Amino acid sequence: MPLLLFIVFCIGIIFEENDAQLLSAVKLSQSVPGLITYPDSLDWQTNGVVTPVQNYLDSSYMNAVVMVETIESLHAIATGTLQRGSIARVMDCCATNMTYGCIKSLGGICTYDDYPNVLGKCQTSVCQPFASFDTVDEYYGLNDTALLPLIQKSTLFVGFYPPEQVFLRYKGGIFQETNCSEANTMYALQLVGYDNTEKGDLYWTAKNHWGEWKDWGESGYIRILRGANICGFGSLVYQPVVSAVTTTAKSIPITTSSNTSQLGLTLKILFFVLVLYTAYL
């Protein structure tokens, strides 16, 4: 009988230890994105969910352009259909409140064809929105490596603070300017992916909205050194979300843990019952 009691007790301890380790692993995988394996590269543009580079040199259009672009891409990822959205409608209706919240209050974005030009006043009845979102995730002061799990879901609105003249002269290559300050003008870009060079240099790929102005960038795109927080890249991030098609680590079911916990508890109870029974005899 003493041997049986010892065996039951040890089994209970083993299941309790396994349960604790499993819970610890699950919590760690949710809180440390680096433990999850991501593709070596990702380009939403080649996946057919990014519209062509726009031509908006006027800085007053900047936020509207990038917000519309991220909603276009989110809709394309969810539905498989890519359509160009109306930036003009956002300018007309949200000029004094240029936020995702304003766009959501309009029911989302209309197509460019339905509302191509700024009318000077908000005309909500001119068109029917084709794409919207449920919520917007906002991030401030992130290390740029924290963008890796976010970009897996959809494109991002990212703020960027490079020296103006350096940014204006960018013609190509990996941007890695270090003489930066958040006192600089913020440029909003659509982050569409990431990759690395043959030499192993990591970079982000982001879309600007200056068309072919002075042959800027790489066909309207810029590559930015990844993992170095270049010019505050990652310090201001917005990501519109459609809840129905978004999967996060929080949705991972934890069923094995509860089962092992219950079994460990059962064995402990059995142990004490046997102790009492032995004492009674």
UniProtKB/TrEMBL annotation:
Its signal peptide is: 1-20
GO terms in the biological process aspect are: proteolysis
Provide the GO MF annotations for this entry: cysteine-type peptidase activity
Q: Which UniProt keywords apply?
A: Signal
Entry annotated with the keyword Signal: yes
Record-linked InterPro entries? Papain-like_cys_pep_sf, Peptidase_C1A, Peptidase_C1A_C, Peptidase_C1A_papain-like
Pfam families reported for this sequence: Peptidase_C1
Residues in Peptidase C1A papain C-terminal domain copies: 38-241
Name the SUPFAM superfamilies on file: Cysteine proteinases
Q: Record's family? A: Belongs to the peptidase C1 family.
Spell out the protein name for this chain. Answer: Peptidase C1A papain C-terminal domain-containing protein
User: Per the UniProt entry, what species is this protein from, by scientific name?
Assistant: Adineta ricciae
